[in-house]
Structures are given as C-alpha cells and as structure tokens.
C-alpha cells in the first residue's frame, strides 16, 4: 500500500488549488482524487466566470481579499496563463426594495466601512451618475451604487485546469473517476478507501463541498450543511460591444432579490445569476433542468433594468452551493483527528480559491495559517450548536 504525504479528496476549485500548493512544496508523495472526470459540471466550480472583488462587508473576508489577488497573481505568474480579468465592479442597491429584505451589514455602508478600514479606494454614485457612466443600466431612480475598479472575473474552469497542470508539473499524482468511499483516521495517518483499494496518507484534505458529509462519515463528523441548487443564464445579446469586459463591469444588484451579472465572457453572451436563490437539494438529488420560475425572474429583471444585456437565451445551467448555517467558510482540521483538513466554500469561495489552496496547505502541514481563519473553525457555534439558526431563507 503506497504511503502518501498528503491526499486531496475532491478536485474542484478548492481541492485543485490545494493540490497545486501542496505539490509545489512537497513535490511527489501528493495525490489528488476526483470521483468524476476532471472539469465535470456536477459540483460548484465549473463555469467560465466567477466574480472576484475587494468589496467585502465582513472583516474576516475583507482581510483575505487583497491576499487572494496576490495568490492568483502567483498562479498566473508560474503558469503564464491569464485567469483574472479586471472589469471594475458595481454594487447597486435598490434601497426601497431592500427595505424589507435587508439584513446585517450586506449593504453599501457595510462595504464602504470595510474599504475604509482596509484602505481600499472606491466611488459612490447615485442613480443618475450610474446611468451617465454606464448607460446600459436602467435604474428605478432610488438606487445607490458603489464602484471599485479591482473587481473582475476569475475564469473558474481555466483556474481549475491550471491548478491541476501546475500540480502535475510539481510531481503530484492525479486519479480521476475514482470515488473515495471512505476516509478513516488510522493511527496518526488516514486510510482512504477506493474501489481499487485502500490508500494511506499522513494527511488528508477533504474538499468535497456538497458531498462532504458522505466523505467524512467514518470520522464521526457530520456538518449542518444546506445544499442549494443555484442557476445562471447566458444571454446571446446582439449588443456585444456595449457589454464587452472593457466597457461593462461585473455587478451585484441588491434589491428584492440579489442578482449578479457579467459582461460577455467565456461564451459570446452575457450571464446573470441570483445569489442564494436556489431550492434545497442534495448532491445526489440535484437536477440539471433549469427552473422556469427563475428563468422568468431573471428575464424580468433584465428587461426592466438592463434591457440590452438580454437576448435569446443561449442556455441556463445549474450548480451547487453548500452552505453552513452562518454562511461562513469551513477551513479547519477535525478536532478529534487533526490529520484531516476540511474545506467548504459556503457558496462564495472561488475568488479566494488560490489563497485557500495555500491556507489548506498550512493546515495540512501542521503550521499556523498564513492569514487569519479563526472565523472558519469547525468548533464554532454555527457548526456545533444544533439550535443555531440559519442566517438565510430557502
Ligand atoms: C452559480 C454559482 C455562482 C457562484 N459565483 C461565485 C462568484 O461569483 N464568486 C465566488 O467567489 N464564488 C462563487 N461561487 C461559489 C464557488 O464557486 C464555490 O464556493 C467553489 O467553487 C467551491 O469549490 P469546491 O472545490 O469546494 O467545490 P466543488 O467544485 O463542488 O468540488 C468538490 C469536488 O469534490 C469531489 N468529490 C466529492 N465527493 C468525492 C468523493 N467521495 N471522492 C472523490 N471526489 C469527490 C466532487 O466531485 C467535486 O469535484 C458560485 C457558486 C455557484 C454554484
């Protein structure tokens, strides 16, 4: 039975980043295992685009935002591949619509408070100023907008493939189409059970997102995770130039629903999604058929607020969020079995994936994390107190 230094279970956005960082430190002795084919579309990480931004309304994420950009720079530098496209980014807040739905600090004040605290530059715009800068938008009039030039697009599918290629270049072994049936603490190490036999490693990183509890079943750990089936739609707008990345920013529109959108990227099409708009499901029960209600809702938003962004639908696709009750990441080792590290992205981790790869490497190699991750422990009340209320509605 070949002994590995570290085995990474799950090669989505977070697992592939961890595999690269581990291999770049350890060389051989590192194995990555994925149950499906590399680049499959059944999880959370396979699409052309994810929003990256410095705009964070909570300190635990704001502290990681700039280091995340640096981590992507390192990946781009070593691979010679562009992964991040800066387009500028808008947070547009429909104060009227939000009056009934607004919770906590997820608002323009929350973002600017963090910008001020972390010394990040930004611009505040009212609805008229928004339209004069980006006439593509058609606000109702009560909106306020926040612009930050560093925001942009992470090419998720490309990032995963680059992380995998770099990991290979550093000597990592990769097994795709190999479901891990169980992860078992085994003395100071870990046994990893596959159909082809049981492997042994000194350390294991579990980055299984929606499948995490299945993978962890034999460690005695079960996490209170909600899996949501999210959905995005690509529109074949005929107005390509108006929505080119150089002329149209990524945006988040906080109103009755929280929409987010992208310029033409990846496909010859714009893309729209709704944050936390999905229905509850499981990794096994999730469907691939887009929800017609959300299709309608997206089309309604587009025709009302960005009419030329729309066009014939190219396609809609579904994808999974895996969310703890407090919507915070999980980045920690199992208290009972510190040789096992767990990562869960809570539906908003891709922008941090390159940095999370580094942090998971710190945890797996028993050293202090290079950036503060106390907010993401496994021992926090949201994960240990069964009565802890979910901070979101499904
Ligand atoms: C529609 C949508 C939009 C999003 N937009 C953004 C955004 O704009 N910005 C942002 O920062 N984040 C965004 N996110 C969140 C982000 O994409 C996720 O947080 C991130 O991709 C999670 O990565 P992961 O590697 O943990 O999950 P996954 O990619 O799901 O990886 C888990 C992997 O583990 C594998 N696995 C599971 N069980 C086993 C097993 N037993 N054996 C072997 N392999 C196994 C799975 O097959 C899978 O490949 C979005 C997510 C969605 C769904």
What's the structural blueprint in terms of helices and strands?
Layout: E1 3-9, H1 13-26, E2 30-33, E3 50-52, H2 59-79, E4 84-86, E5 89-94, H3 95-98, H4 108-118, E6 123-126, H5 127-133, E7 143-148, E8 152-154, H6 156-169, E9 173-175, E10 180-186, E11 189-194, E12 197-206, H7 212-216, E13 226-235, E14 250-254, E15 258-262, E16 270-274, E17 279-281, H8 292-305, E18 313-323, E19 330-333, E20 340-344, H9 353-364, H10 381-384
Parallel strand pairs: 1-2, 1-12, 2-9, 5-14, 12-20
Antiparallel strand pairs: 3-8, 4-8, 5-7, 6-7, 10-11, 11-12, 13-16, 13-17, 13-18, 14-15, 15-16, 19-20
Helix pairs in contact: 1-6, 1-9, 2-9
The chain binds flavin-adenine dinucleotide.
Flavin-adenine dinucleotide (FAD) is lined by residues 9-15, 33-36, 43-45, 50-51, 179-180, 207-211, 215, 230, 232, 273, 319-321, 345, 347-351.
Compose a concise summary of this entry.
The protein is an alpha+beta fold and 394 residues long.
């Amino acid at each position: 039975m070949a002994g590995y230094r570290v085995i990474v279970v799950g090669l989505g956005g977070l697992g592939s980043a961890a595999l690269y960082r581990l291999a770049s430190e350890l060389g051989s002795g590192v194995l990555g295992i994925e149950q499906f084919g590399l680049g499959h579309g059944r999880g959370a990480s396979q699409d052309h685009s994810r929003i990256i931004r410095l705009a964070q309304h909570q300190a635990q994420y704001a502290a990681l935002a700039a280091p995340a950009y640096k981590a992507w720079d390192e990946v781009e530098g070593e691979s010679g591949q562009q992964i991040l496209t800066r387009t500028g980014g808008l947070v547009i807040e429909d104060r009227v619509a939000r009056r009934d739905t607004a919770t906590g600090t997820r608002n323009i004040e929350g973002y600017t408070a963090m910008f001020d605290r972390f010394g990040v530059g930004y611009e505040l715009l009212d609805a008229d100023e928004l339209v004069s800068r980006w006439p593509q938008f058609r606000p109702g009039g009560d909106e306020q907008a926040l612009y930050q030039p560093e925001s942009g697009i992470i090419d998720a599918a490309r990032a995963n493939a680059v992380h995998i290629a770099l990991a290979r270049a550093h000597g990592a072994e990769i097994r795709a189409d190999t479901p891990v049936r169980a992860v078992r603490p085994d003395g100071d190490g870990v046994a990893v059970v596959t159909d082809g036999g049981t492997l042994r490693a000194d350390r294991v990183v579990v980055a299984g997102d929606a499948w995490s509890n299945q993978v962890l079943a034999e460690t005695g750990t079960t996490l209170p995770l909600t899996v949501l089936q999210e959905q995005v739609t690509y529109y074949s707008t005929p107005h390509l130039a108006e929505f080119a990345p150089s002329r149209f920013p990524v945006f988040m529109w906080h109103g009755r629903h929280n929409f987010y959108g992208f310029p033409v990227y990846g496909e010859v099409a714009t893309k729209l999604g709704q944050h936390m708009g999905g229905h509850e499901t499981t990794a096994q029960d999730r469907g691939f058929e887009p929800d017609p209600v959300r299709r309608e809702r997206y089309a309604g938003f587009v025709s009302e607020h960005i009419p030329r962004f729309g066009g014939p639908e190219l396609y809609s696709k579904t994808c999974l969020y895996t969310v703890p009750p407090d919507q915070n990441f999980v980045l920690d080792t199992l208290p009972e079995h510190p040789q096992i590290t767990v990562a869960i992205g809570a539906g908003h981790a891709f922008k941090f994936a390159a940095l999370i790869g580094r942090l998971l490497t710190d945890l797996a190699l028993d050293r202090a994390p290079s950036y503060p991750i106390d907010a993401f422990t496994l021992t926090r009340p949201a994960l240990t107190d069964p009565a802890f209320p979910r901070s979101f509605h499904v």
